[in-house]
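Trying the structure run again after the queue cleared.
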Amino acid sequence: MNIQQLEYIQALDKFRHFGRAADFCQVTQPTLSTMIQKLEDELGVKIFDRSHQPIIPTAVGRRILDQAAIILLQVAQVKEVIREEQEALTGALRLGVLPTIAPYLLPLVLPLLRKHLPDLKITITELKTSECVASLLSGQIDVALIASASEDELLVDRQLFFEEFLGYVPRRSELFEETSIRSAEVGRYQLWLLDEGHCFRDQLVKFCQLVHSTRQQISYHRGSLETFMHLVDQGDGVTFLPQLATEMLPAERHSQVKPFALPRPTRAVTLVRHREYVRQRLVEVLSTLIQASVPESMLQLTMEQDLV
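Done. C-alpha cells:
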C-alpha cells in the first residue's frame, strides 16, 4: 500500500468513473485501474463495486476510503509544517463561508487581507454549514466561517464576533410603526425565509418557535436575502437579515430594519479548522483581520442578546 494508491481510490470515489479519475490524477486509465486492483489484492477485499454504474464503494470500501481521507490529510499536513516554516503567511488558503456571511463580511475583510497578506492566494467557496464541516473533514478546505458550533471532535472552533438577527418590514404595515419585533407574533405574517439547511433559517425558526405556527401562502425555494428584501419593499411580507447586511443598506431603507424585542437573537460567527491543520500563525492573523473588519460593538456578547 502506498500514498499514490490512496490518492487513486479517493479520486475514483470522487468521480465514480475510471477515465475521469485517471485524468484528474494525470495518469492513464490502465495505470489507475491496475494500481487500484493491486491495492484490493493486497487488502483482500473489493473497495469498489464495478458491476454498478456509476461505480460505487462497497461497504468495507467506504470504511477504507474514510480512513484514506484521514491519512491523506495527515500527509498534506506534514507538507504544511514545512511550508509553515518556509512561507509563514504566503502560499494558499482554501476558505469556506456561509452564504449568509459571505456577501456582507467579505467586502469588509478582503481589503485587509490584500493589505496584510499580499502573498497569500485565497480560494473562497460559499457552502452551507454541513458542507463546510464535511469539506474540512475531507481536507477540501482549510478553514471555514460558520455561525454555529461545528460539533465534531476533529474540528476546532474559534468565536470571532456576534451578529444580531434583525427584521426587515414593509413601509406599509403596522410593523413599520413599531420600534421592535416580538418573536411570538412574526408567524402571523408572510415570512420569506431561506431553505432548510441554512443555519440562519434554522436558528430563526427555533428562536421564534415557527415550526408549527406558520401557515404561509407562498413558499420560495433557493431564494436569497436580497430577493426577499425586494419582495418586502413591494409590501409583501417580512424577512430577516444578519446585522452586517443592514450596515450595507442605503440610508433610506434603514427605517425598515427593526430589532427584536429583548432578548435579541444573536449568532456567533466562528472560524473553524481541522485540529490537524498546522498553519497556526496564519489562523491567528486571519482571525485578527476578520475581527478588525467588523464594528467593535460586535466583538462581545451583551446581556441584551440571546445566543441562538
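The radius of gyration is 23 Å. Worth checking whether this holds up in the mutant runs.
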